C-alpha cells in the first residue's frame, strides 16, 4: 500500500518513487506486474498525474519498470548484468551533464557530493 504524506518535507514524487522501488526490491511487486495507470494512481493517492508520470519515467530510466504506451507500465525483469546496467546509467548521466554544459571536473564533483550524502 502506498501512502503519500503531504506534511512530509520529501516531495510526493520522491515518496512514490521510493515506495514503488521498495516494493519491487522486496518482491511485493514481481516482474510483469501491471502498474495502475498514471491517472488512476494519481486519483487514488490524491496527487497530480504529472507527479505519477514523472515517477514512472524515472523508474523506467532506472530499469525498474517498462512502459509500453497504451498497454501501460509493468515491473521489469531484473537486469541480468548489473555491470552493464551501471555502465548504461553512467553513460546516460554523462550525456545529461554534457547537455547541461558541465565538464568532467564539475561532473565528478557532483558525483563525489552525491556519494558523500547519506541515503
Structure notes:
By secondary structure, the protein is mainly α. It folds into two domains: 12-75, Winged helix-like DNA-binding domain superfamily/Winged helix DNA-binding domain (Arc Repressor Mutant, subunit A); 82-116, no CATH class. Helices cover 56% and strands 5% of the residues. The chain contains five helices and two strands, in the order H-H-H-E-E-H-H. It has helices spanning 12-26, 38-45, 49-61, 82-99, 104-116; strands spanning 65-67, 73-75. It has a two-stranded antiparallel sheet. Helix 2 (38-45) crosses helix 3 (49-61). It is globular.
Distance between the termini: 22 Å
What is the number of helices? 5
Order of secondary-structure elements: HHHEEHH
Tell me, briefly, the overall form. globular
Biggest beta sheet summary: 2 strands, antiparallel
CATH fold type of the largest domain: Arc Repressor Mutant, subunit A
Query: Average pLDDT, to the nearest integer?
Result: 91
The oligomeric state of the chains shown is single chain
Count the domains: 2
Task: Kindly provide the radius of gyration, computed on alpha-carbon positions and rounded to a whole number of angstroms.
Answer: 16 Å
Strand portion, in percent?
A: 5-15%
Coarse structural class: mainly alpha
**How many E strands?**
2
> Class of the largest domain in CATH?
Mainly Alpha
Query: Biggest sheet, strands in spatial order?
Result: 1-2
